[in-house]
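hey can u run this one w/ 4'-deoxy-4'-aminopyridoxal-5'-phosphate bound, need the structure tokens asap thx
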Amino acid sequence: MSIQRSRSEMLYAEALEHIVGGVNSPSRSFKAVGGGAPVFMKRGSGAHFWDVDGNRYIDYLCAYGPIITGHAHPHITAAIVQAAENGTLYGTPTELEIELARKLKTAIPSMDKVRFVNSGTEAVMTTIRVARAYTKRSKIIKFAGCYHGHSDLVLVAAGSGPSTLGIPDSAGVPKSIASEVITVPFNDLASLQQALDHWGKDIAAVMVEPIVGNFGMVMPEPGFLEGLCKMTREAGALVIYDEVISAFRFHYGSAQTYAAFPDKQAIEPDLTALGKIIGGGLPIGAYGGRKEVMAQVAPLGPAYQAGTMAGNPASISAGIACLEVLQTPGVYERMEALTIQLADALQQSANHYGIPLTINRIRGSFSAHFCDHPVTNYEEAQDTDGEQFAQFFRLMLDQGICLAPSKYEAWFLTTAHTEQDIIETITAADNSFKTMRAG
Ligand code: PMP
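ok here u go:
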């Protein structure tokens, strides 16, 4: 069974003439899943979207994370329309920005002060600058396979998109910059201690996705974040959490306030980077942290960071509206219940057909790795069957189920997915595993 996508193919050919690689973000290309035209989408509503050929898909890509309330949620749409009617940009402060900042601070108390930017990349990039300004040191420790956007310093051993395309260490990053980054394996405190012992006085910050979303979904092992924070502080460096994916994904708050970590103080970072969900589907990023650290930022301090579009009323209004939806009692519990139903059925079905599958589920999201071992770090995520994933991805797409075209990316549910969607997805997955076994 294969659905017809001739208009996507035609548009892709045309896009290739004008847009580099035919896509405006490399992770949208189908290079890692056999190549060819990606699906050109035209419209979305709730948990579904429709392509230019009129095919309907159940969406588990969810724009790589931001779309947690489904497409065109009426509350968010109304907020955007109202913002647009009042004018899209003033270049002055607005009251709306205070409201979103207050909401973020209440949910993530380690952020005494916040600054809005336009993307996760900008947010992370600036936390590094601020940490360097504060500590007057230059080196950064990051964890292999974590992805922190596309600024120079963090395109070293970068997961998700760069890994999918086989370029975890990007060309164009000068050696002098790459040499400022030390990479250690996730969930490995001994390696972190070794790096800190060796480079200690030069380390400005240790940066981590506290719950990883970029080589699948991976929880830190018990004690990992606590140990990371303690060792980093002892070395006189700052802890930066990249919560661009994890904030508001698992509960109304972020990884650092998640119930899985009982000793909140022991895992509190100095700086946090945010993005994705906090903009309700419009471009946004934010960073924040301890008052004295954030005092480095201009106009208070000497670390410069600015943005013509930063804090624009449309993004901020969409963000406020999205967080309001997420404050509805029971939304995370409902997403989790549906995700358990789906993940358990996928596992059972794969087992039934003898296809090795490791599922890492965290509340309303999960990753499914084609392998017969646990996935707790980047190396283990790399050691999974990309060809099997590609086949599964194609089979699912042809049955109207849209996943991210990469074995490193997560499946995301939204508040709009229904039990009917889950049942359809389970049936499609069962068909897919059956075909894979036969092939
Ligand atoms: N940090 C993390 C953890 C991310 O997952 C991403 C994007 N996938 C980014 C930073 C970069 O965000 P953006 O694409 O908005 O620049």
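The mean pLDDT is 97. anyway lmk if its weird
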